[in-house]
């Protein structure tokens, strides 16, 4: 790659679409992790599929690495710029090409902000279910490429479960359509599923046909409860699932997180609380479901249980969850992790995190999508450091290994990116790795798509 | 492949596991289609993963095609024997290796009969949701390899949606583990999804980690209704979905099917009926949901509506659906098809089928999983023919093309197998085909896994 070849791309694309001003390119170099970026030679601000085709043809011809990028809210370093490559930003491709209430589907471009799609659907009594906490800032393209989860996925599943088909531009500029507009179909291998979660390493998603669902008819009913032990909270989670309460949200906050929130906002926390559970039901009989969950929480030993009876009260109860991340950011720089274990191993996993925090003297704050066994331990360290210091990595390493020992996985919803590549071999067998690289080779023989990420 | 090399396999496997008696091998040569089988040199009745490994190592060494086989209930010719190959039957691998109520998962071998897994789960208040109509006779391995659907999938999704991980023996005998025991995870490409629906062309599934769900607490409430026009029935389907009734079953029977059932069993059919809808709700407030659906059916012009108030009445209403297939089999040999269209195109699709039936003078009877837009037009022809006569294929061809024209797919849940290969190119682009063959090459470079099927 030379400046001359970038000139060629500039001539092929509309004026101003290829940006090389270092101040601008630098702002496209990182996501929300500490992964150190390489120096990109330029950023392409694509506005159409044709722009993407042009860029990838050029990149193939000149063997230039391409890093697809949505909003850069990723927590794995997937969108981190690669030395000598270009960043291909899709965030200006924001058309909702179609929204069919009859078929409950939408066809959207990758730059659409997740919450915007949800709002557009709600105008028709529908919703777009996947709701990462970042949904006001993340893009559908990034959600697809990471198979994003969220709070509602305990009931509605992850991004994959809402994806019917994709339009993808391959590394060589060819356009591929995968999947379908129907809810079912088994013609050929599931290429759609292969692209979801592939973190930009197989091609660039330029449109998606996604499934919408009926929006709940009533606002969700919420219940919050404090537990004296982790085990009692985990038993309460199991009881709620076993009773078929079908929560649309089931979150756990650990002792450290609660204390951080209480220190900041004084929520009147009982100092003996080991964990808080917050649950919602968005079913038509949601209030009854919330009452049932409250009864189960009490049965399992909750020291305090509150059920909302108005939307305002519901907002208040869920508000504590919303404070969790900010409460930690006040205390230092945050490394956000994302392990997932079988639900029954939740208390062991949280205990392992607490033991690691004590052993390495690293403050770790855990919030979990408890219904899915998906934990986000947040490792806090000194503000201003360029990256987490060694003892934080040592603690993270212990947490990853504990998750794997408990039959879990390194990443429930954030992806591997750059950040978790060094642990990949602990989870993935040599046979699986060989096959994954074989697949990569089929889609991207020159290896220009987001090299060094994910696999 | 020579008799000598088969001798080698016989020596490697336990006595009696390789069967060459033509009477027996012949009974393993076909599935439920009319696809003409090749002559297999033998059938391997595997009992363990090791038997599968041994067979595939041997097959790779001698370049012998291998046709994996479950129960042979397939409707696409996927398990049809290949000339000079071996049939590798998995139906004796029937262990449920694990069933964890706490994590709501089971680890099962491929020969487990679908309904047996469901029954095992129900002992713990759980269920295995995917329920192809064949679920008393089909195997989990076959369901996985075809991504089987069923009646409940309007609410619970297809087999893929219940699959967390797989154990697969690759063509060269290596063992691959895919996926995980957790409900979420994004480490690496989704190899699990790639195997589901791959019809035995990428490897042999020897175990699966599947997701169980809470079994409904009450028996389902059922509603049945007769409609004077297809359009009114389709509008009723749309209304039920739009109102968020969440049916756990939503089936449509067309005029021809109803007449065949009435002629046989005299169900008192109004001769002006164009279609019948049968819906169920298995929710805790299912009776209310059924009443709501009944009201919507009336609103959309149903001439007759019945709601069950007891499980016996529910059985009676759903009984009509159960008679559908037999009512046709009485009339001749059946070619069962499986197109799927966006739900809003359902009336057009049924109208197209009726027009084709008239034009080609072929009796076609359609039952549809209406909530999913998945239709099974059954083409009936003279008993005793070895395969459908040309005018039946001509009619089928028209139906396939109509489905594709309406934005649909050739197969919603049965797979492509041998049967639909000739139409594949109408749905799959050259780019997609090239990639699929590239993937096939990665997993099975010698091309011995179920050659000539699916892709
Ligand atoms: C406060 C906060 C809360 C969060 N909460 C959650 C949560 O609850 N659940 C969750 O899952 N994540 C969460 N995240 C992580 C992040 O928001 C998600 O991973 C999101 O999906 C990333 O979207 P993005 O548009 O920012 O993608 P980016 O960060 O720009 O990119 C992410 C990956 O996708 C690739 N990519 C982007 N667009 C395309 C495309 N069109 N084609 C191909 N590849 C592409 C990139 O190359 C990269 O590998 C959170 C992040 C923050 C900062
Ligand atoms: C009366 C009737 C009703 C039916 N209703 C439905 C329905 O509602 N929904 C539906 O989806 N289908 C239905 N079917 C079709 C059929 O039952 C399904 O396709 C079923 O999944 C096939 O299972 P099987 O065990 O019989 O597989 P087989 O027919 O033996 O094989 C099917 C395919 O799977 C492959 N295969 C089998 N086992 C393995 C393995 N362990 N590893 C790798 N590949 C393997 C075979 O090579 C073949 O390609 C019906 C069939 C009948 C006869």
From TrEMBL, chains A, B:
The keyword Oxidoreductase applies. Residues 36-215 form the FAD-binding PCMH-type domain. Its cofactor is FAD. Keywords: FAD, Flavoprotein, Oxidoreductase. InterPro entries: FAD-bd_oxidored_4_C (IPR004113), FAD-bd_PCMH (IPR016166), FAD-bd_PCMH-like_sf (IPR036318), FAD-bd_PCMH_sub2 (IPR016169), FAD-linked_Oxase-like_C (IPR016164), FAD-linked_OxidoTrans_Type4 (IPR051914), Oxid_FAD_bind_N (IPR006094), Vanillyl_alc_oxidase_C-sub2 (IPR016171). The keyword Translocase does not apply. GO terms for molecular function: FAD binding; oxidoreductase activity. Belongs to the FAD-binding oxidoreductase/transferase type 4 family. This is FAD-linked oxidase. It comes from Sinosporangium siamense.
């Amino acid at each position: 790659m030379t400046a001359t070849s970038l000139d060629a791309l500039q001539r092929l694309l509309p004026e101003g679409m290829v940006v090389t001003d270092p101040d601008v390119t630098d702002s496209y170099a990182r996501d929300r992790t500490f992964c150190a970026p390489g120096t990109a030679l330029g950023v392409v601000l694509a506005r159409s599929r044709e722009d993407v085709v042009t860029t990838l043809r050029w990149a193939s011809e000149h063997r230039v690495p391409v890093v697809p990028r949505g909003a850069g809210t990723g927590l794995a370093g997937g969108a981190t710029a690669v030395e000598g490559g270009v960043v291909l930003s899709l965030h200006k491709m924001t058309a909702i090409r179609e929204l069919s209430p009859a078929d409950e589907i939408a066809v959207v471009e990758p730059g659409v902000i997740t919450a915007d799609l949800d709002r557009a659907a709600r105008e028709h009594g529908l919703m777009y279910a996947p709701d990462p906490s970042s949904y006001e800032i993340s893009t559908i393209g990034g959600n697809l490429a990471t198979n994003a989860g969220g709070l509602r996925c305990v009931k509605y599943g992850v991004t994959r479960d809402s994806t019917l088909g994709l339009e993808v531009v391959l590394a060589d500029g060819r356009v591929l359509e995968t999947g379908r507009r129907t809810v079912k179909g088994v013609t050929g291998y599931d290429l759609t599923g292969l692209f979801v979660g592939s973190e930009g390493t197989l091609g660039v998603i330029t449109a998606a046909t996604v499934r919408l669902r009926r929006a709940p008819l009533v606002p969700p009913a919420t219940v919050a409860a404090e537990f004296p032990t982790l085990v009692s909270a985990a038993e309460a989670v199991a009881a709620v699932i076993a009773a078929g309460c079908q929560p649309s949200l089931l979150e756990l906050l650990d002792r450290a997180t609660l204390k951080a929130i209480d220190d900041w906002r004084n929520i009147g926390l009982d100092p003996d609380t080991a964990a808080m559970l917050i649950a919602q039901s968005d079913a038509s009989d949601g209030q009854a479901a919330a009452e049932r969950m409250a009864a189960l929480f009490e049965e399992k030993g909750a020291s305090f249980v509150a059920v909302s009876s108005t939307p305002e009260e519901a907002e208040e109860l869920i508000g504590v969850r919303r404070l969790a991340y900010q409460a930690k950011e006040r205390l230092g720089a945050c490394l956000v992790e994302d392990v997932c274990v079988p639900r029954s191993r939740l208390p062991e996993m949280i205990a392992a995190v607490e033991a690691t925090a004590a052993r390495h003297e690293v403050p770790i704050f855990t919030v979990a999508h408890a219904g899915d066994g998906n934990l986000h331990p947040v490792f806090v360290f000194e503000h201003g450091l360029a990256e987490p210091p060694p003892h934080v990595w040592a603690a993270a390493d212990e947490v990853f290994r504990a998750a794997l020992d408990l039959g879990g996985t390194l990443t429930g919803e954030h992806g591997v990116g750059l950040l978790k590549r060094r642990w990949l071999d602990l989870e993935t067998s040599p046979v699986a790795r060989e096959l994954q690289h074989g697949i990569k080779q089929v889609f991207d023989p020159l290896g220009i798509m987001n090299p060094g990420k994910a696999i």
